[in-house]
Design goal:
- By secondary structure, the protein is α+β, with helices and mostly antiparallel strands.
- 45% of the residues lie in helices and 21% in strands.
- It has 11 helices and 17 strands.
- Strands 12-17-16-13-14-15 form a 6-stranded antiparallel sheet. A 4-stranded antiparallel sheet has the order 5-6-7-8, with no helix packed on it. A 3-stranded antiparallel sheet has the order 9-10-11, with no helix packed on it.
- A hairpin with a 2-residue loop joins β9 and β10 (123-130).
- α1 packs antiparallel against α2 (64-86), α6 (219-242) packs antiparallel against α7 (261-271) and α7 (261-271) runs parallel beside α10.
- It is flat, with a radius of gyration of 30 Å.
């Protein structure tokens, strides 16, 4: 069948036959993507077979976990091999189909509202959104070997990112003209960027010194800094809600507004520090559960202000993980700094010492059980305390109940007259 090129329809070009029908075009995975998939498949198959052979050869080591792991790795290897053969994109005049291993997803041109562009480590990829609210989306990965014909096809689809940017700039311009809701004195994006940069630097400038000098700072100073770190994320959320034309929490592609997300990260880092030297939690289970409350609240507030995503569930999980550092740090500070219980004093014998050298050397004291029901403890301590005590010496333990009922204790040097515990 003779093919001619250059026929245009609705602003895009497709190869068409003399009968006027477009010819479908298929795009497989790129060569490097196929190579990566095959290497991963080989690794999964080799490891899975090794585990299975080990399961057969050593009956006394048989367990359901090993068999399940072997089967899972082998199935994953087979799936990756099939992906190389099956994955592809089929582009027709009025539809796009992404073919997977077990099923294919198709979206008709008449159903498409527009496209958005997202980025990952491999580059940019397109997501086609349906006209129906909460309708299906179709992701065309940059792993596929796309060409100019695809660029022309996708270029004819409305660019939702560009429309959002134009709408945002128009909103900013109208806000400056009318001085309506959302406007501020000297309403300029340049000033907003300066404020966002200042708050980002402030969050780290407050947080990092707590890690370096926390145990040597006055407790009231530490509490004041902690209070600022607890408030900062909510301050920036309020800023975004009050002046949405100037600030954003999660900047979309080409968004001219400054992002305030760095402030959240900096605050979380600072709140994880402790003002108490050689601080240890007896058990962090209860604190981990309580920390979910502020983490969920913060994640919900961030999600409300986040940009649209083809995978909102994934975005919320990511925001919750990021918010959890803040929630855990805030609860840890409440548990220790608002603890009004009278500490109980114990003494523990140093059974051994060790220094683990890594990116940062960490000093450990191996302590014998120091209260009924207490197991032996491998406690990380300051280098000064590590150098001061010897194996067989006693260290003093100050045990606290915790304001949130998460018991914690500190390991300190004992006075020369301290009572040695019974061995």
């Amino acid at each position: 069948m003779k093919v001619s090129q250059g026929v245009e329809s609705n602003g895009y070009r497709l190869k068409t036959s003399q009968r006027g029908r477009s010819e479908p075009k298929s795009y497989p995975l790129k060569r490097w993507a196929k190579a990566v998939f095959l290497l991963l498949a080989a690794a999964c198959l080799a490891l899975g077979c090794l585990l299975y052979v080990n399961w057969i050869a050593l009956p006394w080591q048989r367990s359901l976990g090993i068999w399940t792991g072997a089967a899972g790795l082998i199935l994953m290897g087979i799936y990756l091999c099939l992906s190389v053969l099956r994955y592809g994109v089929l582009v027709e005049r009025d539809s796009v189909t992404v073919k997977g291993v077990f099923r294919s997803s198709t979206i008709q041109r008449s159903e498409i509202r527009g496209r958005r562009t997202y980025s990952n480590r491999s580059g940019e990829y397109a997501v086609l959104e349906a006209k129906v609210p909460d309708g299906k989306t179709l992701t065309v990965s940059n792993y596929f070997d796309l060409d100019e014909a695809w660029s022309e096809w996708i270029g004819s689809v409305p660019d939702l990112d560009a429309e959002d940017l134009e709408s945002l700039l128009q909103e900013i311009a109208e806000s400056e003209k009318t001085g309506g809701k959302g406007a501020v004195p000297a309403n300029k994006l340049k000033r907003a960027r300066s404020i966002a940069i200042f708050l980002s630097i402030l969050s780290f400038a407050l947080g990092l010194p707590l890690w370096i000098y926390g145990s040597s700072l006055d407790l009231n100073v530490f509490r004041a800094v902690d209070l600022l770190l607890v408030m900062l994320p909510w301050v920036v959320i309020a800023m975004e809600a009050r002046w949405p034309a100037l600030y954003t929490l999660m900047a979309a592609r080409n968004d001219p507004r400054p992002s305030l997300m760095v402030v959240l990260f900096g605050s979380g880092v600072g709140l994880m520090a402790s003002p108490f030297a050689n601080f240890h939690l007896d058990s962090d289970t209860s604190l981990l559960l309580v920390a979910c409350i502020p983490a969920l609240a913060l994640a919900a507030a961030l999600f409300r202000a986040s940009t649209r995503s083809p995978k909102p569930a994934v975005v919320f999980v990511g925001l919750f993980i990021l918010s959890y550092f803040y929630g855990y740090g805030a609860c840890s500070q409440i548990n220790t700094q608002m603890d009004a219980s009278t500490p109980r004093q114990y003494a523990a014998v140093v059974a051994g010492k060790a220094v683990h050298n890594g990116r940062n050397a960490t000093s450990y004291l191996f302590l014998k059980p120091w209260k009924p029901g207490q197991a032996a403890e491998n406690a990380s301590v300051s280098r000064a305390l590590y150098d001061e005590v010897k194996v067989g010496d006693a260290v003093c333990i100050s045990a606290h109940q915790g304001a949130l009922h998460a018991p914690w204790h500190t390991v300190e040097s004992c006075e020369p007259t301290a009572r040695r515990p019974a061995k």
